[in-house]
Amino acid sequence: MTGILLIVQIVLVVIITIAVLLQKSSSIGLGAYSGSNESVFGAKGPGTFLAKVTFFLGFIFVVNTIALGYFYAQQKSASVVDAMVENNDVAAPTINVVNDINKTTK
Question: Residue 19 contacts by C-beta under 8 Å, 6 or more apart in sequence?
Fold first, then answer.
């Protein structure tokens, strides 16, 4: 399960990077933090399709990261001894006492 989630994580990273790079920048440099006309979180919220897709992909990325952390923690707490199968079908060797005594006395 962790292998599938790790592949999904890598694909999400690539898609989020492409989605962010395709977006139009709202201002240059640190002007976005100084209260310019186009604020990052305005009254209408993210209006463009690409912004909504980026938000959705980011949410899926966070959920996938939490799931990966959970499954890795479960794997770490599992022990190899828990997976071992105890096989007690082995018969003990039998000793023929009468034949052994006869061999030693002859």
Answer: 50, 53, 54, 57
Structure tokens at 105: 């006395």
The token duo for 32 is 């976005």
- Give, as one character, the DSSP assignment of residue 31: G
Q: Measured on CA atoms in the order 56, 60, 65, 70, is the torsion positive or negative?
A: positive
What does the angle CA 3 – CA 52 – CA 14 come to, to the nearest 5 degrees?
Answer: 35
Residue with tokens 């989630």: 5
**Proportion of the chain in helix, strand, coil states, percent, rounded to 5:** 65, 0, 35
> Low-confidence residues of the chain, pLDDT below 50?
29-32, 34-39
